[in-house]
Amino acid sequence: MAFDKFRAVIFDIGRVLIRVDISRAMDGLASGLSLTPQDVWSAIEKDPRWLDWQEGRISPRDWHLHLAKRLGSSLTFEEFSEVWNRALDPNPIHSESFLEKLSKITAWPYYRIPIHPHVQ
């Protein structure tokens, strides 16, 4: 396939570039609620707006408001963001040298690496 047919290279961050540990976020989200962290995660996975969140059709602020109302949470958006992002391991799956090489390969004018401004 010719390189000029590609306009972008897109990576799924979670479990591809960054390890994800949902339990780290659920502990924080369950704090102050009558739900266990497992109950909170189950409610989120079964939430009718979950797919909208996963696919970027709902803003981070709207997702926070939706979950706060649904779970009865009093976390501010800033607190929610900090707790939600605990699920993301700060150490990338791949080495820095791999990511550096990738950035050089995909640099303009070849490919763009878009970063979705998601809380997640």
Structure keywords:
single chain; 120 residues; mainly alpha; DNA polymerase, domain 1; disordered C terminus
Write the CATH homologous superfamily. Answer: Putative phosphatase, domain 2
Distance between the termini: 33 Å
Q: What fold name stands as the CATH topology?
A: DNA polymerase, domain 1
| CATH C-level label | Mainly Alpha
Low-confidence stretches: 115-120
Strand content: 5-15%
Helix percent reads 40-55%
Number of domains: 1
> Counting H and I runs of at least 4 residues, what is the number of helices?
6
SS-based structural class? mainly alpha
Mean pLDDT: 82
Description of the structure:
With 120 residues, this protein is mainly alpha-helical. The protein has one domain (3-105): DNA polymerase, domain 1 (Orthogonal Bundle). Helices cover 45% and strands 7% of the residues. The longest helix is centred in the middle third of the chain and has 12 residues, at 60-71. The radius of gyration is 17 Å and the shape is elongated. The two termini are 33 Å apart. 10% of the residues are buried.
Task: Provide a brief overview of the structure.
The protein has 120 residues and is mostly helical.
Describe the protein's topology.
Blueprint: E1 18-20, H1 22-30, H2 37-46, H3 50-54, H4 60-71, H5 77-84, E2 88-92, H6 96-105
Antiparallel strand pairs: 1-2
